[in-house]
Fold:
Amino acid sequence: MLLTSPNPDLKRIIEINEELQIARLENFLRCGKLDLVALNQLQNLNSAPTVIHIIDLGDTIEVIVQSTDGSLHHHSINSKLVRFQIDHLLEALQNEKFSEVGESSITTSSQGIYEKLIAPIKTYLPTSGKLVFTLDKSFQSIPMALLYDGKHYLIEHYSIAVTLGSRIRQPKALHQNQMIALIAGLSKLSPSSTDPNAPKNMDNLLSSKQEIENIEKQTKSSVALLDKKFTLKRFKEELTQNNFPIVHITTHGQFSSDPLKTVLVAYDKLINIRDFDSLIRGKTENSQDAIELLVLSACETAKGNKQSAMGIAGMAAQAGARSTVATLWRVEADSTALLMQEFYKGLNNGLPKTEALRQAQLSLLSNPKYKKAYYWGGFLLVGSWL
Structure:
């Protein structure tokens, strides 16, 4: 209704959209009020990021840019002009044979989305730096890094963070003395794989062992739980008894708009999103040492479910994590291990989380073996970009 005005109040529209998104997230989690802050209320930032709000109203898609100087700019497009590209890209990304899909099929759709939604606002964007996207509905399962201008992917110019609920925990940099990690993973199928809510078509994740070893080398200290050691009981004990600024989980998992199907696979049982809440609620309520970085490696969004990325936001909120890195599709294990090694190397060198992830993605993009979007495009950073 506000958008029908000749001079719409863009600030109020953003506020209402934030309230709607956060209500959806609280409804999904069936929880009380989440401890999240609106982007325009963040404190103590050295520089404000450029924020791009994409709001899907059905008949139209509204794009509102908040520039670093606080000014607001609005672009509206009839959704019929871009819906086909959105659906086509989403279908390709969620295809079981995505690794075999031709790159031109991906770039054609992502370029169509870029031209309709990003090109008209390009004049309000910096030439480089960071972009924070607040995404609505079907856009949540499309990585903005993949948008293509005809020559370059967006990730080649910008580091990118996403908020799936338009609000985040207060951003805060990860310091060198916080490179302390709890690392858990499965390298082979476990008894929990027979659970009816387990992700389908799981196979061994032999590279998980290498991924865990790589991360151990990049952290100041760590505890690793591999295969039979990664039980729900042991995982909970480690989380509640010790302080781990970083929690890295490399296992099969699935994000869905159905909370019961938003799960991580531990050795003995599945950890669903409600279990995850009870695992760490005491820690985040009773300690200032909340999880600074949660990494969910080898997981995927539920096929055919446009809002399944809601599960990523839900998992991040339940963990009380300041930043969460997750994958939108089941990525090839060797390339993921390599990307994670580069990501932690960047963190060790003092890079902000978004830039560390960007550099890791670019390292795959520049590798002839892994330059297809399938290998590097599915990684998403939700929450704090510092």
